[in-house]
Amino acid sequence: MRHNVRIPEVTPKFIFIVGGVMSSVGKGVSTASIGRLLQSRGFKVTIIKADPYLNIDAGTMNPVEHGEVFVTMDGDETDQDIGNYERFLNQNIYSVNYMTLGRVFKKVLDKERKLEYGGKCVEFFYHTPLEIINLIKKAQKENNAEITLIEVGGTIGEYQNILFLEAGRMMRLKNPDNVLFIMVSYLPIPSTVGEMKTKPTQNAVRLLNSSGIQPDIILGRSEKPLDRKRKEKIALMCNMHEEDIISAPDCSNIYEVPFNFKKEKLDIKILTKLNLKPRKVNMKDWRKWLDKVKRIKKSVKIGIAGKYFTTGKFILADSYISVIEALKFSAWHLNRKLDLVWLDVEEYEKNPKSLKELFDFDGIVVPGGFGKRGVEGKIKVAQFCRENNIPYFGLCLGMQIMAIEFARNVLKLKNAHSEEFNTKTKYPIIHIIPAQKEKLKQKDYGGSMRLGGYKCLLDKNSISYRAYLSTKWIKPHNPVIVERHRHRYEFNNKYRSIFEEKGAHIAGVNTDQDLVEIIEIKNHSFMVGCQFHPEFQARPLNPHPLFTEFIKIAIKQS
Ligand code: GLN
Known about the structure:
Bound molecules: glutamine
Oligomer: single chain
Strand content: 15-25%
Helix content: 25-40%
Strand order of the largest sheet: 13-10-14-15-23-22-21-18-19
Radius of gyration: 25 Å
Mean pLDDT: 94
CATH topology of the largest domain: Rossmann fold
CATH superfamily of the largest domain: P-loop containing nucleotide triphosphate hydrolases
Number of strands: 23
CATH class of the largest domain: Alpha Beta
CATH architecture of the largest domain: 3-Layer(aba) Sandwich
């Protein structure tokens, strides 16, 4: 699926995007938006994420700590920002575009063991940045990109991302005309003062200067737009031109950000600095779509029965970001705003009566997850939805939950379970296949699940088939989809026939490995579970068929 190799028309250009002052101010969205803006000018753009932690990938981190693990089509477990890049650029991003410091170190150390440094002393501050540069160039080549954006994770001033900055500095030194630095910085407006403060940004620029880097452009992130005075001050104190200080205020819909940047002529400024001639801009579809979204009045109310959203007393929706975006795209497509509510599944375990509140919802999503906490509550949610004809959409673990509930309450298989939660269950509806068992025995936990794109053959007599067909994701003569996976456990084929006999339908199967991929409950408005994660393929102008079908039925039922 990679693009054919073609010599780029322009010398490859590189833009490093770094964060100043603090994290979580929208560096990922800003990067994706710059990418989208340059892409709409007809340039071939790609985006790399360079994360400063030592994990080889994001797969071993708790989502509450790190946010969603975004899975690429070629099976890498990456940072959620890669999801933003895919959604904004409307293109798949592959493993080659993701690096962690751990991954870089591993490469360096492996090379050293293979004598690839030819007897030299291998140095932290020289060989590591060189390896980072190799990886950046490799991604640029594989993507045939004219412009490559590199988002450096973390904030200026942290020791951990200094090697990425050093790589950028070296690249700029060798190629001053082809490498740019953009700093996304935060400007607080303390409520006691009421005035926007520029000092933290000035300090962040000084810190960046101490790495030998002068930013070319600053994106000033704040609650409100930057006024002339702030721009002048930052420019003067940071040794920059006023027109290179860009106002990037909060906006209610992140998909508006490319247009906000365009208003500030950010695309022209970047292209001029890179000696590129601006090409004709084309963002009509995107604008039309956003204008339509703005006009939507009615909403659809969806509950998410997950568990990775509390951090202390705060709600952190980041763990489910792709699910939320997928729901939004489908709701918007059907002229509805998304009214999303986080359901406390552990409360349903303690107090099953509170399940009644599910009647207030148009549909329920049970997303992916790991570990036992909250599982019994989710099973109760599935039972309630099945018995009361409430639309239910199960994603990965959500499908497994749906199968366990069906086995327990329809097939009367007492205490049926997944081997993930009860290794000794008499009825292992969801089980571990031998290859995976061996991996666990060897403590081979990293990057070892069923990961990335796998084919699934759809049964023509199913809701899923109709959904994919009506959105033209498949053709009748070839009802095969490719969807992304991230799980260790599978539906146990031993129970397939009894499921089919008693009212469940196996709607999709991976025929290469004979694995169940989609289960649907018959005689229900919409009770569909898929073993894969459809959310990773939902795009703004191309919402995912299963999400759209789910929302369609939810609206109809409400
Ligand atoms: N924990 C389950 C498994 O490993 C489901 C994983 C998921 O929902 N991504 O199979």
